[in-house]
Amino acid sequence: MPQNNSVTEFVLLGLTQDPLRQKLVVFIFLVFYGGTIVGNTLIIVTITFSPTLGSPMYFFLFYLSLSDSCFSTTMAPRLIVDSFSAKKVISYNECMIQVFALHFFGSLEIFVLIFMAADRYVAICKPLRYPTIMRRQVCLILIVFAWIGSFVHGTTQIILLLRLPFCGPNLIDHYCCDLQPLMKLACMDTYMVNLLFVCNSGALCSFSFIVLMISYIVILRSLRNHSAEGRKKALSTCTSHIIVAVLLFGPCIFIYTRPPTTLPIDKMVAVFYTIGTPFLNPLVYTLRNAEVKNAMRRLWYIKTMTE
């Protein structure tokens, strides 16, 4: 339970106080959130019903799309609804739940991206052992580990937050509840708490990004021994994964690996990785992946023929 806490609700200042800009925010976020849900749902349905997308890569892509949809849903709907309200109020408990959901689904996405990189490494660097190493049971164990690891990460964040006393003011200069804006309101010195947050969220983002980049460097170096067609296909897949990793980890590292200060640009950076990245991921994985596009066409063709 929170210690010496007299605050029962927080007031979110949102992205802007200008009425005209708020209407623009509603439109932009409706488009981005709608595109995120539609795009990721199409990927999930395609992978679920297409017999040609049964490889481990698409097994992990299924969970990446699922985590993207949930990650965006923790933020976008409330931001859109709050844009119509003069006073954007969120209760203390709702705020804590939002922080947990943000970090739970965010870390789930990070774990899945790491497993996708491992899958590509085995497929490209150890092709003969690929069916043995990346068998179905191993993939299931990895996904269970991702859910457990994400739960532990999210729970750790909440435990640290619940120990912070909030005695006023209760104005959060952000459009959602997150670590840095909340620590700024705490009625205590948060240096050590922020250090723990950096060791948790910051280290998770930084270490994962380094591991991913090293793995893709190794993969790209190994492509020299492949045929021209094999290099082209592997390079296309790896490029997609690298784009997604940079789009996600760049903003996260900027937010969670620095001292407990808030900057004016923080809101836009947060918008990018909470709303923008989940919207872009389906485009990256479909427009650059011929197998997914072909599977979608076949499913659409079957649907139209049966009607």
UniProtKB/TrEMBL annotation:
Its main location: membrane. It comes from the Eukaryota. Keywords: Cell membrane, G-protein coupled receptor, Membrane, Olfaction, Receptor, Sensory transduction, Transducer, Transmembrane, Transmembrane helix. The chain crosses the membrane at residues 24-45, 57-76, 96-118, 138-162, 191-218, 238-256, 268-287. It comes from Dipodomys ordii (Ord's kangaroo rat). The gene is LOC106001178. The keyword Transmembrane helix applies. This is Olfactory receptor. The keyword Cell cycle does not apply. The lineage of its organism: Eukaryota, Metazoa, Chordata, Craniata, Vertebrata.
